[in-house]
Specification:
Number of helices: 4
Largest sheet: 7 strands, antiparallel
Strand content: 25-35%
Shape: globular
Strand order of the largest sheet: 1-2-3-4-7-6-5
Keywords: Signal
Number of strands: 7
Protein name: Lipoprotein
Distance between the termini: 76 Å
Helix content: 25-40%
Amino acid sequence: MKKFFIMLLMLLFVFSCGKEKQPEKVEAKETVQENLFKNIDVDKLSRRLEKKIEVNGMKVDSFEDLNSDGKVFYYSTINGNKNEIITINYENLTPTAIVGKVTGKDESNMETFRKLSLSVIMASDTKLTDEDAQIIYEELLNKLENATSSTVVTKNNLTYGIEVIFGTEDELIIYAK
């Protein structure tokens, strides 16, 4: 019996030594990149936009909910001017796009559009620098040269675009989605 017990211990020892220790499973923590506008709620994004627009010398009026064609938007005019607007498209309080629009293409409107475009780009991803935003804006303009729209997809997986809508009052639109 003693021999049996010793053999059993030796067998257990041999089998336990040969077994590699399994690494503990570490649950992957999903990190939300709050720098990207799609990962924060609409209220936080609206405050971020207000700050970026104010840094560029403009003022956002208070945001209001707007329903159109079954879609929900968070809408505001800029500088009290109905020809300068900023809109946050969202579903279930999660932003899906930021859209800025300036009506008219005179020199002052073009400067307003530039400032609004840089504000939209920088608010879409807080990790972007002023220089990054300027590069994206210039790339959009270069692609726009002989077209009415242009888009750029960046390494942050956001799509930026500019559209020109010709009409009785030309419209310039910048978006991030």
